[in-house]
Records
---
Amino acid sequence: MNRNRINGIYAITPETEDTDRLVAKVAAAIAGGIRLIQYRNKKGSAQLRRYQCEALFECVQAVNATLIINDDWQLAADVRAHGVHLGRDDAAVARARRVLGPGKIIGVSCYNDLVRAREQEQAGADYVAFGSFFPSATKPDAVAAPLDLLSDARSRLKVPVVAIGGIDRYNAPALLEAGADAIAVLSALFSVEDVEQEARAFARLSAQRNLQFQNESENRYVKQ
């Protein structure tokens, strides 16, 4: 059930000290159809991050959306978030699982490394993320990931595959077509004036791809 939540548009929050503005932007994204949110704030104080996470948790709970916390598994546990996303320098999956329990989601950044992704899947990760697929303002020095990595990962892994890095409405279809279960967006969603409208546009892309995938699966079944 947890893995099924990793699908469609995966919104990553911008860093800000203005909690009211942050919650308003996330609420607008949810109103536009997005149900998967990652809280990311690497510069804020521990007190601020906890306060913002608690506010976001209330926001997502009202609509049965999913809140993932970037990096900090202890914060995820403290605010009862739905899971945590771990990078290379964060805690191991096993340690996070011991604290969070079996019912929580654990995702892992795998950059452009399919071997790492397979290792993390075996360690118990619920999903893996690859990227950067395009130049990213958030992480300008991120390693580049080739598009065919998504199709390779889709054929070799059982867990959902997330694409990240410089994604907007215009390059997102190629990632979905290549095999991404979810696409992570930050600037392309939260830097626009009308977040709700942009979220609706992203959600339509995901819905169209899901429908296409369903039709392709049904056609293969009929041919068999």
Note: Residues 216-222 have pLDDT under 50 and may be disordered.
---
Amino acid sequence: MTITVIGHLCLDMIHQTDRSTSSGYGGIFFTVAALANLLHEDDTIIPVFGVGKDDYDAFIGYLEKYPNIDTSGIYKFNGPTNQVALYYREGKERLECSKFISDPIPLKKIRPKLGVDMILLNMVSGFDVTLDTLDEIRMEVRDDHLPIYMDVHSLSLGINEDFTRFHRPLEQWRRWLFMIHAAQMNEYEAHILSPEKLDELSLAKHTLALNTKVLHITRGNRGSTAFIDDHKHVRRLDCEGVELKKAVDATGCGDVFAAAYCAHYMRTGDIDASASFANQVAAAKAGFAGSSPIDSLSSFRQFAGEEKNQ
């Protein structure tokens, strides 16, 4: 099985509520590394994104430990890699500060990597691809019925002059969520996404009417909900939160959720089982800080699903 992963790389600096800090690769790295640990060595992950020229060689060298990652879609650009500072505050939404956001990934870099089994688009910065590029991707793959999974992520974030990010409605949200396999967002993003301030069920009905099959809403330690198009009716699947001995760091949990869902769905074609699996793996990510221990997710590999019937 082969999956193309599109989204911006970040260099993360994470500031926890106890004033501890950690740093490492973030953004699309969480998705790519999670997939590398969940899929088999004979599967292929094809990331498509740019890396600043000063970081490129070290990053490509770091990925060499993953035999199932094809780095041919990773390109070098002048200037620094996107840097993100994340500040977690007790009882409040985290504060995100993004510097040096990379230019959108051009279609000419993506198009050669579309002959795959699934596409995972993670809007890490919110500027990862343009809406026109997504439309072109949809047109390229629609005849092959290729599933596109999109994590809305930072698509609903604006950016201030001091590089801090803020939530705002997305005027063209229907066009973004049109004709894909699944859209993912957390419950706050779901609340803020539509200018009409649709409730979750209404948002799901509108989304699934766009010829999209699933809307995933993640809820942190309370689990997740999938709204599924079941023969033109909306079916709700709630996955309960997973109890952890200690929740350490929520950074990257959404990226891991997307990776785990796609890893399972590619093999099984089972939406319900894939959503449940994603919920379990994302909870495991919350048990460690940053991305350095992400290879521990390989313990879930055997549960990533059996090959679906062809």
Note: The chain is about 30% helix and 25% strand.
---
Amino acid sequence: MRRWRRWLVAFVLLSALPLAQAQPQSAAKTFRIGILAHATPRAAPVAQLFVHEMRERGYVEGQNTTFEYKHAEGQVERLPALAAELVQQQVDVIVTEGNAAALAAKRATQTIPIVMAAAGDPVKGGIVASLAQPGGNVTGTTLIHPELSAKRIQLLKEAAPGITRLAVIWNPNSPASADIVRETTIAARGMGVHVDPFEAGSPAEVDGALQAAVAARANALVTVGDGMLWTQRARIVDFAIKQRLPTMFPDREFAEVGGLMVYGPNAADTIRRAAALVDRVLKGAKPASLPVEQPTQMDLLLNLKTAKALGLSVPQSLLVRADRVIE
């Protein structure tokens, strides 16, 4: 009797198998990924790198993935409304560039996962509880590294040993910028350099900050990483060259338009890790359990054409350490 029952169960299961196989397969899911940025995502390197990295992971725009681009065109006040639009579009995840965009997204939704790409300090910015345990619906990558400010000044002094007064252009509307200015001031003081910070909260205030730096007799200039200042990089670099000011910047695009030096996290590595986090989120991982990742690879860029224009002779010891030399 028991053997007969086993045969009957096996027969029923085998009979049902073709029927189950004949059922139509559910359509492949199309992922909707929102990209919220302070600048213009389609033109910004962060967005381009991110879309490429997602494609490498099988998320192909126009096939199984739709990217919803929302950009504030340098106007931070537009970010809350743009974040709300992404929420209304019911995207599966929101990818943000910069602290202001991440904060706007967090205020717009507590349920849609948010992955920060190239953010500032998200803890001091009030975006996550801690790097190790973000909590809530936000995780991602940060550009903050505890030794970054000091290293930038050290490298700048190697290229231009005569620096004594350093102008720091920063955006007071960026939550973590004040801390970076403070770190820069402390690090510079230890190297015998006086720091004068100058605020530029909008594109209209950039020229005034630059003129104030010259009036303060600064003989070098740096900027704090910020989306608005990034959009004004050509103006800042052109002014510095005309005033013969050695410069250090946080983003490689500054060196590409003539900035003397750039030292900061490797953009490709940062975005690659952000894309990996998005992939995990889309596969079901919760942002609260995914630690915010700090930079592990740093790049040094030198613009020798600008160095020549400034009358600087960059030491060989610095050239051999550069990841890229622009001639």
Note: Residues 148-265+298-326 form a domain with the Rossmann fold fold (CATH 3.40.50.2300).
---
Amino acid sequence: MSPRSDAGYYFHRSAIRINDLLHLSPTNEVSVEGVARHVFSRSGQVGEELTYFVSIVGVAFLILLLFRLSARRFPCPGALSRVVGVVALFAAPIGYLLVEKITWNWDYGRFLRMPYPYWRSSHVAVLGAEMLCFFILLIVWRKRPFSAWMLCAVLAVHYMYWVPALWPSDLMMYPYRLLSPYLLALVFPMSGFVWMLYAKAPEAAVENTAGRRAGKWTVVAAIIGALVLALIWLPPRKHSLAHFADVKSLTIQLSRGPCRGLCPSYTMTIHGNGLVEFVGGRFTKITGSQTGMVSNEQVAAILQQLDRANFFALEDRAFTWCFDSSSVSVSVSADGRSKRIVSDGGCVGWESGQQAQFVRAADEIDTIVGSERWVRCDNAICRK
């Protein structure tokens, strides 16, 4: 499976941050020594639930603050009501369609691709027709307001279509089912009926509401929402490997683990002075220890590859994993700072994503060092 974006990685990274703050263990330990795999544990669900719920609520508070700050700038309360109505009715469907667009053309194989392009899907056609009808009804409403019963009927038809569409009954991306999407899908219809009450309120009350400044609690909620969104979604601070103080302290270790097949397993350590230590395991040309040398330029090239992969900013617990492919790990220690990243060697998520870049950097390390002379096995003896 080849996803078309890195959204899954970023979502899991945010959930892991929350679990770390709550001192929960979201995943099982992964090692390259065996065919061990990253499995989401039940305790990790807390971070995913909170990531989903808090992200949407935080954005909602920011939108609320935007409306409260801009209320005085609208030429009339009716204009504000129309904008609020568009957001209340169509923000959730538009957000759903944007996510659907990202995941529309997943490649499960030649016979399981989507048979038609995204823009020809029924949801897009229904949303376009509904928005056209909404603006037509607003024009008519200015001349002849509708009764509350008629508005309720229109809203009921709208939600009879979109609540089942937003209902996440077919999304099993975990060994457990998230609860937050169900809760928010139930809350979604309330926004339209709240807007209806606002639109049907007496004109004096609407003008009084629009004329007030943003309340203290609205501002506080929006600030807290913005801080929480920044805390869980902003990428970690990057640390460059191109410049380090003590070359003698540099150690780069690359390890590859076994698979359900003939994948070579070995460990290769590159020191800052150019010394390379190779230890072969299964299915390698050389078993046991071997040494070699690389130049300072080659060491610098290795560090550049890791910098391009944002090595120190990666969160390997958010990576994609399969159940029968090999694994690869890279650990770097320099100037008293160290980090180890482990990844599946075959399932790497989006081809331009963070995990794929890391796996390509690991492959480049093998190429720069020339590990093929110790690894490549051309006879049946070393494959036993």
Note: The chain has a mean pLDDT of 81.
